[in-house]
Every structure is written in C-alpha cells, then in structure tokens.
Design brief:
By secondary structure, this protein is an alpha/beta fold. 33% of the residues lie in helices and 22% in strands. The chain is globular, with a radius of gyration of 24 Å.
Length: 496
C-alpha cells in the first residue's frame, strides 16, 4: 500500500510513512488537550502595588530526583513542601507501580523503604517528561528486566535513537513498538550486567546523562562516565550533579568524568526542602517592576545553578532590587532606569522574562543575545503580534522604538509555559491580552493563574495544591480599570 501510494504521488515511501506517523500523533495531542483551554482568558490585571508572600515554586527536576532518592532509600524520607502538579504525580505513580512506596498528604510527600521492587513485565507510563522516561529507563538497567514504556504525545514524537544506540554498552536493548516510529512506546530488555565505565559521545540527551547519574546510585558497583567535552558546560548537569553531591559527597564531576561510587542504601536526611525554581520564581518576583510594592517567596535559593547571579544582576539593571537569605527571596523596586542594555547570552532561557520587562520599561532597551537560538523567533512572533516597535540585528534586539503598524486582533501561538508566563507579564503593558489554552502552564505550576488573578495579595485567596484555572474568579473589583484596547488573542500549546 505504501509503495503504491508513494509511487502515484512521487514520494519516498519512508518519508511518507514518517509523515503518516507524525500526522497520526496530532490526533493524540488533540485528545490530550484540556477542554478548559477552549475558553479564552482575557487579562486586565490590577495596577496596584503588590504585597506577595508565598511559597516559591520548587525546581521540578530536583524534586523528581528527591522522590527517586527517597523511594530507593532504606530509610523514610519526607519532601516538604510538596507542590503537586501533573508531572510530579506521573513520576510518583510510575514508581509506585514498580513497588515503591510514595504517599503525599498535607503538602508533604513521604517515601517508605520497600523490601523489594521490580520493573519486570510492567507497562510503565512515563507521562510527558523526557527526564522521567530516562530516569525510569536507567533504573531498569540495574536488574534483569523486560518492560514496556509508554508516554504522552510529546514522548511519542521524541527520537530515542541516540540512546537506543548507546544502550547495548549498558547491557540492554531498546526497540520501538510502532512501525516507522522513533519514539514511545518502546520495549526494554536489560541484562542487569553493567560495565564499570562507559563513554558517552556528543549528541546524547543531557537529561539522559543526568538520569543515568541519578539511577547509578542504585547500581551495586557504581559507575564511571566519561563524557564528551560538550557536556562539561551544561547548566542542567552542573545543577543536578551539585544537588546529588549534597547527599553523596563521594560523587565527583571533574573535567569530563563523572564518578558515581557504590553508595549507601540510605541517605542521611529525614526531611528535605527542594530548592526553588529560579526561572518560575522570578516571574513572580518581577511583579514589583510592573506595579511597585514587594514580593516575598519562601524557599531555599539554589546555590549551584550556573549564571543565576548574572540573571539577578540583569534584573538589577532594570531597577529591581533582590534580597536573598537562607529561607526567602524578597524583591522591591528602586529607581527606573532611563535606558537599559543587558547581555543574556549566558542565560537565554530567561529571554521571555527579560522581553516582558523590556516592553514594560517603555524606554530604550537593548538585549544582547544569541541570534541563532530558536527562542528569538518566538520573541519576534510575540513582538509582531503586539505591534511593538523593535529592531533586530545579529546578536542584538532593540526595544522601545516607535511601532511601525497599528495593533490588530491577531492570534499568537504561545510556544510553551514560560512564554505564557511572559504573556501574563506583558498584559501589564498591553492590557487586554486574551489567551486560549491559558492552562498550558498548569502541568508545571497549576496555581499560577490563581495567584495572578488575585493580585495584589494572592496569599489571601490561594489554597496551595488545589487551585485550577477555573477557580480564577476575582473577588475585589473596586477601582479596577479595564482599558478600552483591542484584545490580542493568545493561544498556548500543551508543552512542558
């Protein structure tokens, strides 16, 4: 059938099969979309000085690592505060399916030691997180295992071939289930015979490397990983390994070599507070820049996230003053600068936030960046939708220029959760922004919209762990002003 169809259309059969597989997965993606996303959310935020005092959102990957370490430990462990979201619950369910004991109640997540666990002959749903898939996969390598892994549409179209080619060195074989697919579902056959040393070439996912390091804490003989030099500057690996070293000081990351020695069966902690996620937290901590007031987020600021001080310094250039102590982070606004020139080349993942602040400055703002980054295309798309004046040259984005055209009602496709957060901040400068699928942030930060809709004092209305986008009713409407502007419809796509 494929040969006949490709012959009549003059297509390559392999390309046609691949195209069919991708189109077929679009139907899965539509089914996975939340029906609430069909209702647009139009943003007319209050322009009052904020008085925010909340728990900061915790780092998702570090929280997942902590669940894993607790589950595989021979002693009980409590992670507090536990901030439930879809991604966290997917990992907890998968680990419990394998025989581990993880429960959560009253914003605490507790793990209990288990006498035995097994992934053999299990069908394990990895959800939407690539890191969780790799973490579960690497856990299975330590035992004789035959298992099947399934996942969301994001993992169905994820190319596992680089890892597939590496696994035989780790005594395992990975095969795809669906013909002409390079993603999940996949079957794993693991011998449990692991080498003492492995070399990982360039092109392997950094999330796989970190997952292998975490899982190697359960391998009886440990593991030495020789990495390609390109991995040594990875912020993800530096952050994750430094966090692991808090619990396993013998673990080493020197030059391009990772050494995970045989580790004890338990960790010397009974309660752990995972460090905050600075990228998500700074979207709340930047609120005083737009409205004045103060924002206080409780939590432990990460000490080992590369370039984080550079980001704080960049926000200082915008006039935002940040005070960090051992249990909280506080921001307030100083003087607004006459103009801003910042360089985010080392931390371009913060582009959505810096772009929103640059637009809020309403003065000249020059952002130096990597012009080859895909995120810049997303920034241009948003600027065009807002009809904001800007100029783009190689390595530089200039904001605050006169607009070249009149604002029109155009739909913007938000490329991800952090761009949706930026869209919320942009609404302070461009009131009337409307978002379809505004809950695309809910998989990682389900209570964000309740916080945003209940400014300037969201802590009076927030019930952590239970808010949903449908709960964003505003209770105080006095003195609210809704500018008579054309609405800009913004749609977001389900990604995490």
């Amino acid at each position: 059938v494929w040969r006949e169809a490709s012959r009549s259309a003059h297509f390559d059969p392999q390309i046609l099969k691949r195209l069919f597989h991708l189109i077929n997965n679009l139907s899965y993606a539509l089914v996975e979309k939340n029906t609430a996303s069909d209702r647009p959310l139009c943003l007319f935020p209050r322009r009052k000085p904020v008085e925010i005092e909340l728990d900061a959102p915790r780092d998702q990957i570090l929280q997942s690592i902590m669940f894993f370490l607790g589950a595989t430990s021979s002693a009980p462990l409590t992670v507090t505060p536990f901030q439930a979201n879809d991604i966290a619950l997917e990992l907890i369910n998968a680990l419990n399916l394998c025989g581990f004991s993880i429960t959560f109640q009253n914003h605490e997540c507790t793990t209990q030691p288990t006498p035995a666990w097994s992934m053999d002959n299990k069908v394990i749903y990895a959800g939407q997180s690539k890191f969780h898939f790799y973490l579960l996969l690497c856990l299975a390598l330590g035992q004789v295992t035959r298992a099947k892994f399934t996942g969301s549409t994001k993992l169905k179209i994820h190319d596992v071939r680089p890892v597939q080619e590496l696994l035989p060195v780790l005594g395992a074989r990975l095969t795809t289930v669906e013909p002409h697919s390079n993603g999940l579902p996949v079957r794993l056959e693991a011998s449990g015979q692991l080498p003492s040393t492995i070399s990982i070439p360039q092109g392997i996912s950094k999330k796989f490397v970190l997952a292998l390091c975490v899982a190697a804490t359960t391998y009886p003989g440990g593991l030495i990983i020789n990495l390609d030099e390109s991995f040594t500057t990875s912020p993800l690996l530096r952050k994750g390994i430094a966090f692991l070293q808090d619990f396993f000081p013998e673990m080493l990351f020197e030059n391009a070599t990772l050494t995970i020695p045989p580790t004890p069966a338990h960790i010397e902690h009974t309660r752990v507070d995972v460090p905050v996620d600075p990228l998500m937290s700074l979207h709340l901590l930047s609120m005083p820049f737009f409205n004045g007031g103060t924002a206080v987020l409780h939590g432990r600021w990460p000490a080992y996230t590369p370039h984080l001080q550079d980001v704080v310094d960049i926000l200082f250039e915008f006039g935002l003053r940040t005070h960090i102590d051992t249990t909280s982070i506080t921001t307030s606004m100083g003087q607004y600068p006459a103009a801003v020139a910042v360089d985010i080349t080392c931390c371009q993942e913060y582009l959505p936030l810096i772009l929103a602040m640059g637009l809020g400055l309403k003065k000249e703002c020059v952002i130096s960046l990597d012009s080859t980054d895909d995120e810049l295309e997303h920034a241009q798309d948003l600027l065009e939708t807002l009809s904001a004046g800007y100029a783009l040259t190689p390595g530089q984005l200039r904001l605050g220029l006169p607009p070249t055209k009149k604002a029109t009602e155009i739909t913007w496709q938000s490329p991800g959760p952090f761009w949706t957060l930026a869209g919320a901040l942009v609404s302070f400068t461009y009131p009337g922004v409307c978002m379809n699928n505004a809950d695309n942030i809910s998989s990682v930060w389900p209570w964000f919209w309740k916080i945003f809709m209940n400014l300037p004092k969201p802590q009076q209305f927030l019930h952590p762990g239970t808010p949903h986008i449908n709960d964003t009713t505003t209770t105080d409407t006095e003195n609210d002003t809704k500018p008579k502007r054309k609405r800009i419809k913004v749609t977001g796509d389900e990604s995490a």
